[in-house]
Amino acid sequence: MSDSIVAVPLDKAYRLLNHGPTVLVSARYNGVDNVMAAAWCCALDFSPPKLTLVLDKIAKTRELIEKSERFVIQIPTVALAEMTYQLGSESLYQYADKLQRAGVELLAMEGEDLPFVSGCSAWLSCRLIPEPHNQQTHDLFIAEVTAAWADSRVFKQGHWQFDQADPALRSLHYVAGGHFYAIGHEVIVNDNAASID
Amino acid sequence: MSDSIVAVPLDKAYRLLNHGPTVLVSARYNGVDNVMAAAWCCALDFSPPKLTLVLDKIAKTRELIEKSERFVIQIPTVALAEMTYQLGSESLYQYADKLQRAGVELLAMEGEDLPFVSGCSAWLSCRLIPEPHNQQTHDLFIAEVTAAWADSRVFKQGHWQFDQADPALRSLHYVAGGHFYAIGHEVIVNDNAASID
């Protein structure tokens, strides 16, 4: 585990997702690890923190999550743009060595039996809240976030620090066809609220 | 209706939300219009396009949507940051003149009996798909997008053009406490896919 990775208090975990980044979803079941890219992941509640995630029925990661009921949401950086695109374009069903092909390096977090992707800016460990209707009808999965971490070079004291950090650590926001946007500059509306918050 | 507003084909509507912007939610019922800000709105399906939206029980807009089963998701710009923050901080229950206080100007779209907020970069007209369990348990609303429009100065030919447009037209991505980020620069991974797509 990198020296710059620090725990994020659970009541601040929603802030890791609030700005709408593209994420990587990883899961482990019965000795199989997989990672996929997803643009449709969204905060759902503050405390306990919950999130929604859309998983197509063709995704191997979905099968792993349905069986293990655990997964990790992590936030890839501009430096991982090619890897993120590749993880969203290929399936483990098609390539048994998908993770090696994309250059994924995994890291371990203490007490967590899940695959965490190295080089991301934040990680949320999630426990599925099974909802058969949502999963079958809408491909929609709901989960509780049980632990969170961030790279303190870009997220500290409960806030993203994109303008102060290396631009390679900015989050990615996918549109379509290999086109992402990086997150940009801060826009502060209410200095007073910011200092209180 | 501004000359620069053009219809977006429904199969491209998901792209308006894919990069995770903060949105404004507007609704109308029985002569009452309201607009609120929301960070938790996410694409759910491509065709027909659907989306999810989280609405707290304290929001007047939620009541209007539950009664009318219609609403608009629109994407505010950097130029509307203060208005967006104010629309997320005050309730119509508290201020009957909330929209005037925030400086909201409404525009009409042909054939739509809904309040559209002027100055946004895109608009999605939505029809609620009632799901009582999701609404009561998770404050989660699911809707089908029935029509979409964008400001062609910043979205055209199915793609955002943030790097070519006035920076004041960039989308907002909320974190907390009055802190937003503007969307930043394009990161293109796969030129070939981009040209096909």
UniProtKB/TrEMBL annotation, chains A, B:
> Does rRNA processing count among this protein's keywords?
no
For this protein, the record's SUPFAM superfamilies field holds: FMN-binding split barrel
| Coiled-coil stretches noted in the UniProt entry, renumbered to this chain | none
Give the required cofactors.
FMN
List UniProt keywords, sorted A-Z. Flavoprotein
Record's keyword annotation contains NADP: no
Gene Ontology terms for molecular function: FMN binding; oxidoreductase activity, acting on the CH-NH group of donors, NAD or NADP as acceptor
Q: Which residues form the Flavin reductase like domain?
A: 15-157
The record's family statement is:
Belongs to the flavoredoxin family.
The name this protein carries in UniProt is Flavin reductase family protein
Q: What organism is the protein native to?
A: Rouxiella aceris
